[in-house]
Amino acid sequence: MLRWLIGGGREPQGLAEKSSVQTIGEEQIQNPYTELLVLKGHQDIVRFLVQIDDCRFASAGDDGIIFLWNAQTGEKLCELHGHTHKITAIAPFSSSDGTEEKTDLIITASADRTVIVWDCTSGRQVQKVSCFHSTVKCLTFLQRLNVWLSGGSDLCVWNRKLDLLCKTSHLTDADISALVELPKNCVAAAVGKELIIFRLSASNNGSEGWNVLEVKRLVDHQDNISSLVSVNDLTFVTGSHVGELIIWDALDWTKQASECNFWDSSVHPDVQPEIKLSQSPNETSVQHLTSDEECVFAAVGKGIYVYNLQMKRVIACQRTAHDSSVLHIEKLPNRQLISCSEDGSVRIWELREKQQLPAEPVPTGFFNMWGFGRANKQANQAAKKMQENTPVYFLELVGDLIGHSSAVQMFLYFGELGLATCSADHLIILWKDGERESSLRSLALFKKLAQNGDLQLK
What we know:
Methylamine Dehydrogenase, Chain H; five-stranded antiparallel β-sheet; mainly beta; about 10% helix; WD repeat-containing protein 41; autophagy; WD repeat; about 45% strand; WD40/YVTN_repeat-like_dom_sf; four-stranded antiparallel β-sheet
């Protein structure tokens, strides 16, 4: 295990080339992550990180092995062997249903067409299911119904012990790529370009049988859905490979707002335009979505965008946040965001309010509630008036974490314990608050000296 200073790793791919992305100097006074630990063990791309508890997490990827780690020390706690192909989905859950002692478990799916439940303390396999006809692409646990869902060519419903309760027939030529829980015992499944709403119900005859019923198909997207996220019990959001973002009502599944002009400089005139003959799908694809109760944060191509749910508009953006596609974005408890990219970089952004002069025009950039840009003159005037009375925000780069040499797939935020990132370079990096780590070392040294002093006195 190594301990480096930021900048001590190899130069990530793409950073040596001339770039239009915002840069930050060596003095990153607002970036606390001045130390890092490099965790080795994986032999292939590390695609997934999942938090188990306050100080443990699991990693998995294309080598089919799951590792458990201590987030404070970087210690490797356990290796879980059982899959023969790459991991395609991973999720944590607790075995406790109120009648037994709580046990931390994780569930993994693989391209070997198996699903395994693991005990995170002992490392043993609790259950293994091998009855799948295709690879499971996603796993989700429904708290309201106390059941598991797996998505692939079919939607399967399982109890906690992974007994199959029911399943759908083959849906379409496309597989289920993402699932999200909705109210009224429903789930939304992303299947190619379509969103399929299913309703789950237990049998009324007293048996343990379950039913899963398709109740609606939403066909508003023009291309495959690439990201699906729940905001709250009232709202969920989808994004597609051609840059469409749709805000949905979680109760009646109607479209509340939409946007498909992330890359259009006329929508964001405060951003320097780029002269291009055409738009590559990779430059407009919504790679990842996350949200809090106030905003939706979208990774679109190389950029990141902040959409306010109440204002129904983009309030801040960085069209070129990284040199390559942004793969993952998360909101921190404060007003900061973290993003990671195919270029190997991890960046910290702060959402700040722009100070405007009275005569300064406010940039446009609304999400159109009813369509894709068609609005009458009266609506435009009302929008302009509302815009003049609303604050304008911007994203400022406050930290640039250079350590990985290839695409950073995702990350986990552990608060004061730091940040964990995983990459195609087979490595996991724990980014640490340098001041906190220095204080901990000083405290440990002081305690050791005090103990030695007591021994000498005795």
